[in-house]
């Protein structure tokens, strides 16, 4: 599998100052492992967290365990950074 990256622009006022004054990078680059790549590919607004967890378990087996806590934590991080939006059941 080719390398997969999540690129998060640094857009807050403080980050823009740090970029300019300290010559820091304009974005954060996170290399995703195969599980992270699959999760992002699955975040299409149609699949539930349970469906994504089931897919990860069947595809990666023990490597993904404990699948649900890991998945929820990853999705919370993505949501906090406005990469995905978590929606309640409805």
User: How many H/I helical runs?
Assistant: 4
How many strand units? 2
Strand order of the largest sheet: 1-2
Report, as a whole number of angstroms, the end-to-end distance: 35 Å
Share in β-strands = 5-15%
How would you sum up the major sheet?
Answer: 2 strands, antiparallel
* Average pLDDT rating: 93
Uncertain regions: pLDDT < 50 for 5+ in a row?
Answer: none
Helix and strand pattern: EHEHHH
Radius of gyration: 16 Å
Overall domain count: 2
Indicate the structural class. Answer: alpha+beta
Helix fraction bin: 40-55%
3D structure, described in words:
The protein is elongated, with a radius of gyration of 16 Å. It folds into 2 domains: 1-30, no CATH class; 33-83. A two-stranded antiparallel sheet has the order 1-2. With 90 residues, it is an alpha+beta fold. It has 4 helices and 2 strands.
